[in-house]
Each structure stands twice: as C-alpha cells, then as structure tokens.
TrEMBL record, chain A:
Signal peptide span: none
Region annotation (Disordered) ranges: 962-984
Protein known as: Oncostatin-M-specific receptor subunit beta
Family per similarity comment: Belongs to the type I cytokine receptor family. Type 2 subfamily.
Biased composition (Polar residues): 965-975
Keyword Cytoplasm: no
Source organism per UniProt: Bos indicus x Bos taurus
UniProt topology in membrane: Single-pass type I membrane protein
TrEMBL record, chain B:
A GO cellular component annotation in the UniProt record: extracellular space
Species annotation: Bos indicus x Bos taurus (Hybrid cattle)
Descriptive protein name: Ciliary neurotrophic factor
A Pfam cross-reference name: PRF
GO molecular function ontology, one term from the record: cytokine activity
Subcellular location field: Secreted
Main subcellular location: secreted
SUPFAM superfamilies: 4-helical cytokines (SSF47266)
Keyword annotations: Cytokine, Secreted
GO biological process: cell surface receptor signaling pathway; positive regulation of biosynthetic process
Amino acid sequence: MRSSTKKRRDPMALFAVLQTTFLLALLPLRTYQSEVLSEPLPLTPESLNVSINSTKQCLHLQWTVHNPDYHQEFKMVFQIQISRFKASNVIWLENYSTTVKRNQVLHWSWESELPLECAIHFVRMRTMVDDARIPAPRLWSNWSSWEKADAQNSLGDHPLYVFPKDKLVEEGSNVTVCYISMNHQDNISCYLEDVLIYGRQLDQNVWAFEFKNVSFIRKTGTNFYCKGQGDPEGVVLLVSKVLEEPKNFSCETQDLKTLTCTWDPGNDTGLIQLPSYTLFESFSGKKTLCKHRNRCDWQVTQDSQEMYNFTLVAENYFRKRSVSILFNLIHGVHPMAPYSLFPKSVSATNATVTWKVYSIGSSSALLCQLQLLGEGKVIQQHNISVRVNGEYLLSELKPDTEYMARVRCAYADHFWKWSELISQNFTTAEAAPSEAPDVWRDVTFVSGHPTVTLFWKPLSKVHANGKILFYNVVVENLDEPSSLKVLSVPAPANSTKVTLNQSSYQICVTAHNSVGPSPASTVAISGHPGNENVEEGRMNGTEDGFPMSWKPQSRNATGYVVEWCDSPQHLPCVLRWKNLGPTNTDTVISSGAFRPGVRYNFRIYEISTKRMAHLLEKKAGYLKELAPSYNPKVNMSNLTSHSFTLSWKDYPTESQTGFIQGYYVYLKSKTGEKCHRGFEKTFLTDNSVCCKYTIDNPDQKTFVVKDLQPESAYEFLVTPYTSAGEGPLDDFRKVTTPDEYSHILIHIILPMVFFVFVIMIICYLKSQWLKDKCYPDIPDPYKSSVLSLIKFKENPHITIMNVNDCVPDAIEVVNKPEGSKMQFVGTRKSPTETKGTKPAYLDLLPTEKNYSGPGPCICFENFTYNQAASDLGYCGHFPVTPQAPHCQLGPLTSPEHLLKTLEQSYMNSLGEIPAGEANLNYVSQLASPMSGDRESPPTNPPEPALCSEYKMQMAIPLGLASPARSENSSLSSTALLDPREHCH
Amino acid sequence: MSLVNDINTLVICQVLSALCLLHLIIFTITAPSFGSPHSHLSLSLAQLQDQGRPFSNPRFSSPTLSLETLPSTDMPFEIWHGLEDGVRLSLTQEAFWSFSQHFRIAMVDQHILHHGDSIVEDQLWEARLKAKGLAGNLAAIMTSLGLPSPAANTPLGPVPLGDSAYRKKCRGYVIIRDYSFWTDRAVTFLGELKAKYSQ
C-alpha cells in the first residue's frame, strides 16, 4: 500500500518539481509583467481645456495623461465627442491615436463648419491604451466631464451678429454663415450681394446659411449682410482663387555666379495674402524665400557645385504647390548680350565690324554669331569664337548699300541659348556705275530737220552704285567729226531734246555719280526720215502681256527695240521701250500700266551695227478686248415710206475698246412684224423682240433699211461689235415712215406755197397798182367786170353812170337852222348827235330784214366794188323818218324784178321798222370815207353812219327806169336812185 | 475804412480760393464716370463700386450707419444757418480737418481690402489733401476775420467700425457720405460769405 502510495507519490513529486520549475521559469517574466501591468493604468485624461480660434473656426483641445508609474511611451487612442448647443446633441465623434509620453500635454484641433460664435459647444473624451505590449482586453476609460466652449460670451451688446468675420475661403469650397439675434428679432433678412438668402434655424436666435461651391467675385470679397431693426450687419467672405502650380520653371545663369530661376505663377489668387514662393536646393540643403512671385535668384557657391536639384514651393493659406528641376550649371549658361558693336573701315565692298562680350569665367570663350542683313534678309552669317573682343571682316558687299550687322553669343563649352541680339546699320561707299544707261530716242522731223528726244531709264540700284548726279549726252556729227556737242543733264531727269541737222549723228549717254561715269550707251541718228510705211499688224494680248515676233531684215542686226506708249489714251505719250539682243526675234511685252480695253501700238526697230534704228514692224493689240463702250453717232437720211439710210462716217474705231469687227443694226417695229430679209430676230435684255442685221465689214459705215411699212414707227440702233461683244443697246432712235403720197404732196404743196408767197410779195409790191386796177377809191364803172358780165348776159346797151352826172347827189331835204352845214361834211356824228336837226328825209330803199346792226339800215350795194365802208362795218347812216313823203321809186335795176324786189323790200321794211327808228341810209358814190386820200381835206365827203352799207350801185338804162330829162344826161345816181327828187 | 476794405478783399480772396477747392472736391466726389469706374473724377463711385453690393448699389442708403468720430451731420439746416459766421467757420474747419484724418484711415482700409489696386487709394489720398487744404483755407479766413485761431488739430484716435472687412467697407461708405454732406454745406456757407464780403 505504502509502496504503491510511494510510487504514486513519485510522479506527483515530479509533477510538483516540474511545476515548480515552470513557475520558477515564469517568475522573471511574471516579475516583468508585474512591473508593467501590475498597477491599474490611469486612462482618464486630465486637465482637458477647450479654447476657440475664431479666425480658423477651430476648437483647440489640450489635456494631459497622467502616468506616474511608467516612463515608456504608449500608443493611446483618445475618443473625442463634440456636442452643439447641448451636451446630448453630439455632432462629432473622433478617435485620435497618438503616442503618449509621460506627463505629455496633448493637443487636438477640430474645425467647425459652423462659426463657433453661433453655438455653444461641449467636448469630452475618453482614452484607451492601444499598444501591442498590452494584452487585451483594451477598455475605454471613463468619459471626462463635458467641457463647454462658448464664444458668445465675448460678444457685445449689439442686437445682431453675423459670423464668421473675414473668413478666407478657397474658390469651390463650401462655407456656412450664421447670425445671432441677441434680442430675438424674427424679421431679419439676409442677403448675399443683394440677393435675399433663406437659411435654416439652428437655435432660437441662431440661423445658418450654407453656401456651396463659392466663386471668386472680387478682391474685396463677397458681401453677406443681414438687416433687422438696427444697422445692417454683415461679413465679407474673402474668396481666394485656387493656387496654381508654377509653370515653365527653369533656371539659367549669365555669368556662372548667379542663377536665376523663373516660372509662371499662374493666375493671381486675388487675396491680400499672396502665396509665398520658396526655392529649395536638395544637394546643398539650402533654401531661399523668393522676393518675386515669378523669379528667384540663387547665388552660386564657390564649391564648384555643378548639379542643382531645385524645388520651388508655392504656398498660401489653403494649399502648397511644388515643382522640381535638376539643373546643370554649365548647361544653363545664357550669356549677356554683347555690346559696342561698330562697323569700321567701310569701303564699297568690304567692312570690318567689332564688338565686345562679357566674359564668363577666366577660361571660358563665347561663340558669337555675326549676321549680315541686306533688305531685311540674312545674306551672310559667320560664327566667331570670342573671349573679350570680337572682330570680323565682311566682304563681297555691294557699293552704296545699307546693311545691318547683328551679333549674338552663346556659351562655347555647351550651347544652350543665344544671348539677346545687338545690331548696327552701316552703308558701303559708292562706286562708279557699272552699267550703261538704257537709252532710246524719239525722232521727229521739223522742216526737214530731225529733233531727237533722248530717253533713258534710271539705273537700277545694283548698277548705279551710288546716287546718280547727272547724265552726260555727247552728240557727235558723223559727217563732221570735229563737231562735238556735250550736254549735261542733272538727275533725276530722264530725257533731253536735241535738234540736229540733216547729217548723221552718234549720241553717247553716260550716267555719273560721285565716283565716276558709267559705260556709255550709244544711239545713231540718220539725218533723213526712215521708212514709215510699214503695214500695221494686229495681235492679241495675254495675261502675261503682248507676245510678238518679227522677221529680221538684215543679218547684221545688233539688236532690236520694241517701243510703245504705256497710256496711249492720255497725252503726252509715256514712251516705253525694250531692248532685245540680236538673237531675239520674239518677246513678250509686259507692263503694269497695261489695261484691258486699251489699244496699244508697238513699233519694232532693228538696230544696225552703226547703232541706227530702222522701223521693222508695227503692231497693235489689246491686252484684253472689251465690248465697245459707246455707239457711233448715226445720221438718218433718205427717209421714204419704205426705207431710210443710216450712216456713221466719222466713227473713230481706234478709240474703241477692241478691234471693231463690224456693226449690228437693230430695228424694232411697233407692230412687231416679221424681220426683213437679212435681219434675224433677237431678244434684247428687256425681253423685247428685235431684228438684227450684221454688218461684217468694219469699214462699211452706211446701211439702208428697206422694206418698211409706210406710216409705221420704227426704232433703230447701230452698235459696233468686237470679239468681246457689242456696244450698249440703250440708245434706240425712233423714226416713222411717211405715207406713200406724202412725197407727192410735198412736191405739190411746196411749190404752191412758194408760188402763193411770191404772189403775195408781188401783190404787196404792186398793191397801189393793184388797187388802182382792182378797187380804186373811185371805181371806174367802165372798167368794172360787172359791166362786161351784164353786157354779156343781159343788155348790150347798158351804160355806165358817169360820176360827173352826180350833181344832184344831195338828195336830202334838211330843215336845218341857218348856218348848219351839210350833215355829212367833215363830221362823223352819231345819230343821237343829229337828233335835234329833224331833217326831212328821203325815202329810198327799205333796209334788209335780216340786218343785225344796231338799227335798221338801208344799204346800197354797189356790185362794182364792196370795199371801203362795208369792210369797216359801217355805211353812211342817215336817219329817215317814215313820215317823209314818199317818192315814187324808179326802177333801180335793169331787171324789173329787181326794182320790184327793192320796192317790196322797202315797203316791208317800213312796215316793220318801228316809228322813229327807221332810217334810210344812203351812201354817196362820191368819195368814200375810206378812200385812199384821207389825208386830203374833206370836200364835203359824206360820212357814213354805222351799219350803213353801200352794197351796189348799178346803172340802169333810162328806158328801164324813168324818162330822161335831157338827152345828155347820163344815168346818174340821183336819177337812178330817187326819181322822187324831181317831185319836189 | 481802407483797412476794412483790405480785410474784405483778403477774405474774398481766401473764400474764393476755398470755393475753388470745394468745387474741385465736389467734382472729385460726385461726378460719376460710368465708362471708367476708376476715373479720378469719381471717388465715391469707384470706391463703392469696388466694395461690391450693397455698397455699390446706387439706391443703397443706411442712414443709421455712423461714425462718432466724424463731424456731426445731425444739426438741422435752420440751426446751422442761424449760427454766427465765426462758429460756422470753426465747425467747418474742424470738419474738413477731421475728414482729412478719416481719409487716411479709409486708405488703410482700402489697402487691406483691395490689395494690389492703388487707384482707390490714390483717390482717397487726393481727397485727403484737398480736405486738408480746405481746412487750411478756412483757418486763414478765420484769422483774417480776427476770429480765434482754430485749436491745434489733434491726431485722430481709434475710429470704430474697423474690426472686420465688412465694417471697414461700412466705414468707408460713411466717410464718403458725410464728406459729401459737409462739402455741400461748406459750398453754401462760403457762397454766403463771398456774397457778404463782396458788398
């Protein structure tokens, strides 16, 4: 039992030993552990202090962790809670991990999106050891007590506050603005740049306004303000543009002593707080704060540092930007521009230029590039190695030419960049003209003597080699070699006139500048006119000019000259010429003065070995033919009922804008009839139909338009045409053909009119004779044609009453006072004036019934003449009272019915004439008041009264009337008219 | 009698000089140049345009905004008109001296607010010189009239409304506004003086 017990005790003892050993082995560890964790860790933070940074809107927390037992560092986690307005309103929870030393004061900041002044904040925290050396479980400590952060305590007594003040905001970020109404106003309006903004209420008197993605408006910031009852209150949000990364960052040195780094800073952020720029060099560890926002200088040290690693850091309130470059000092040498560049020893063809450079180091050379520019183009370029002074001889220059020399240099050891250029102008010296002037002549013969106008072209700058001062003209008479005439024509004249005699001459022209003369140009003049009778050819111009060719006349020609006028339409002619070599038989004449539609005349001369010019050919052409610009003035003639002739004889074809190939005759008829033979129907631009006749011959300048209709209206137009078209169709003339007989009428009427006119002239010239013959003042009855008529028709025995028989003409019986004269003598009284005389009147003949005069009248009608009184509209007017005793009327005319008629008419008249108005007018056959001898004193002429009319007096044979008183008595008017006179 | 005339002539000359300066001030303050807000002819417009709305709004008016350091604008015109010439001269002289001081503060404010744009600062500097010159002219008039010389002008103390950018803008607005008021009042007053001593 004991043994078994003992055996049983042995394993037990071993186990106990092992256990003891294990425990002994663990004892040190345990001892160590007991050193660290044997005491409970003081996890609760102490001395928690909360402060407010209003500018940054941050809460700053500060606390300590008291751990008196351990000296090692521990990693710990601090859990921080932030509440707003009240402790229970937790708005932020964050674990802050850090390594904590013993008695270390810890800091932590929290930026609030809401301005801290607008709300009370509460902060508390707890801790936990988060160190791998501490086995789990890791437990949070207890929360600290709430710490209060109240920024409103510092506010004054204003009724309204707006926060945050002067907040710096980066463009594109979000910002919250709030206001606090201290007296709990509820009628507060808030505006962002005058725009009403609505916010959200955070507390009883706190409102917040959140702005997202704010933008830059102006440097002075964005205004936010609120208006209540008092003054408006507001804040300015200072919005900054985003800081850009510097661009094009590079460094270089001009002298291997100072490095200059430059960059493009980008847009201005717009804030007063400018970003700072710092240059940091990593190899040397040096840095410098740059004074400029786009450039920074770096002093090269003397330690032969060749490589530089620069980092440029741009930094502002919100962010940092950096850019780096690796820079080899030797590879970034940008020398300064050379200086003192001067030309020296400038001749006509050579010049030496010198310049200086700023040395780089003691052993370094510069590679300089010398450029020579003429007329703005680089014509020479040379590279020269220079240490201090540079010099180079420029050759192959042109005389009297302005050049520009310019120099730039680069670092010879390693080319990187040319320096700035410097330049200097210089002009080479003059030389004698290198070429003879191009001379031509125009020869005119005045009275058989040639007058030569010499023309020359100014030498080109290349050949003038300086300023041409004058031209020498040497005229040599070849027939008299001793005769030499020298003219000096000052420049810039390009012509001179020389009058010669009929000898042959050689004229030499040289151009002179300040250095000397040019080679001579020679022309020879013959004393006699050459052959001008050369037929003119035609040619067409092209875009390049006038191509022309000719046939040489002699094999010894030394050249050819083509001459023309640039503006032939303007006088005087601007003579142009072109010299051609002896091998040329064609050329193209071009000129900037050539215009389309202008006729140019060219003359081609052949130059002999003696420099004599012979006219070879004449040519005329247009650069481009145009349609005629105007139409000829057309005369129309020979107008008949069926045709007319058109002619335009003096039409100047040379002034036209193209070669006239012919003419079109347009004919328009009102009736629109068919076109006549030879005409073709065509449409004008106004769509009117027209007939057109084409005249192919430009020399034909007359045209007969035939087959016309009589009495028809036509319009015609004659227009020339060239290869480019016809002339203007806007000047139609009208013509109307006469009828077929009009010409006959003209042939008859015109002579008749002429004849009548001649008769009238004759009558006028022979009026007195005619009057005497045809209507004398006292007609001669014997000469009356009536007489012959009566004789012929009635009675061959009829006779004419003789004037001498008219003694008893005074047939009226007038009871007039004594002394009164005969009523008709020398006076012309109206009936009213004679009213009181109461004469006794003789009844003669009744007046005509249809008499329309002022009163009833009785007129005698003398068929032998009816001029005088009747023409004047009045007759002898004699009042006749009806109460007068009636006399028996004798026969008045040979035809009995005439007397009867008269008597009857008279009786009727009496019956019709009212009492007191009836008159008896009697016109004496004595001198008419209108007779031609009015000037003679009146010898009792009976003056007719108005409306009396002496119609006719007619001699009646006694046998037919009344018995004659005596045999000798001829038929007298008295006897004829009033036989009653004898009754008294 | 001759001495009185001499004094009157001197006063007239000085008043005319002051009036010329005032007209320059008026031209500088009030003549707007819409095409060029930075024209030197439009101090107020340029200054306010750069501040943004509401200050640049032509209809903006905040009569309650004031600076206690500025000369008072509360005195009704009737009372002002009833004051003796000497008193009015003294008040006007003090006012323009005060404005010359305030313009300096406004310049500093603008420098802070408007970095990099010296045009408004230049205009304020010009206005300050003119206000200072007018104050000197007024002092000379007072001396010529035998009035007590104005008290030695003391430097301006702390001026309110400068604790934030917004209030700086308000301060500039009030200075310009009140300066315009005093300029108008001075023109009228000096016109009266001119008429009075021209007789």
